[in-house]
Specification:
Layout: E1 6-12, H1 16-33, H2 38-64, H3 76-87, H4 100-114, H5 134-138, H6 144-148, H7 153-172, E2 186-192
Length: about 190
């Protein structure tokens, strides 16, 4: 008699935006525990937060708008504006204030890194008194994006403000069955034949 067979099936729903959000949290936890190299953790946290927001818009858009796949090429800000209009929600503030101002800066940062270009930074010549030049002389020349990763300030503000926007959108969903940061769920079975 041949040995029995088993049929295994698995299924999993993945919420990519929640996985990316969690990944950013993990990266930032490392930065808070170890300051050496923290700027690279801040960089990663900012990028993962931006990716999470973009993925969340796609998650909600696919659930709320039947032709969302046709809109994939829209910019992140255009997708947000469309969802706000269709879902009839009101985001707090304006693009000149938090949280939308932060979102604009976050997406600009993301685009700068995603489409990175080499360049040159110049300073001076600036004339100083001999006793006053030391501070500026030793200050490193940094791009705007490099300045944003020198401390956790921007990444923490970005995460707070993006979460605020996501909460407004989540509350406006008509048929949401998932919690905001649910990573999804799965199940598996094994049946003896």
């Amino acid at each position: 008699m041949p040995p029995p067979k088993v049929v295994v099936t698995k299924q999993r729903v993945v919420h990519t935006y929640a996985e990316l959000w969690h990944a950013a949290s993990c990266v930032l936890d490392v930065a808070s525990e170890r300051q050496e190299g923290a700027s690279w953790q801040y960089l990663s946290g900012i990028i993962l937060t931006a990716f999470s927001f973009e993925a969340y818009l796609n998650h909600v858009g696919a659930a709320e708008i039947s032709c969302w796949e046709d809109l994939e090429r829209l910019s992140t800000q255009s997708k947000l504006a469309l969802l706000v209009e269709v879902m009839k929600v009101e985001l707090p503030g304006t693009y000149g204030t938090r949280p939308l101002q932060t979102l604009k800066t976050l997406l600009s940062f993301r685009n700068t890194i995603a489409h990175g270009k080499s360049g040159e930074i110049k300073y001076g010549p600036v004339q100083y008194e001999v006793e006053d030049y030391q501070r500026d002389y030793h200050e490193p020349l940094l791009t705007d994006w490099e300045k944003m990763i020198q401390s956790p300030e921007f990444v923490m503000r970005a995460r707070q403000d993006v979460e605020n926007i996501m909460q407004v959108l989540q509350a406006g969903r008509k048929s949401a069955t998932d919690n905001l940061f649910s990573t999804g769920m799965g199940h598996s079975s094994a049946n003896l034949l």
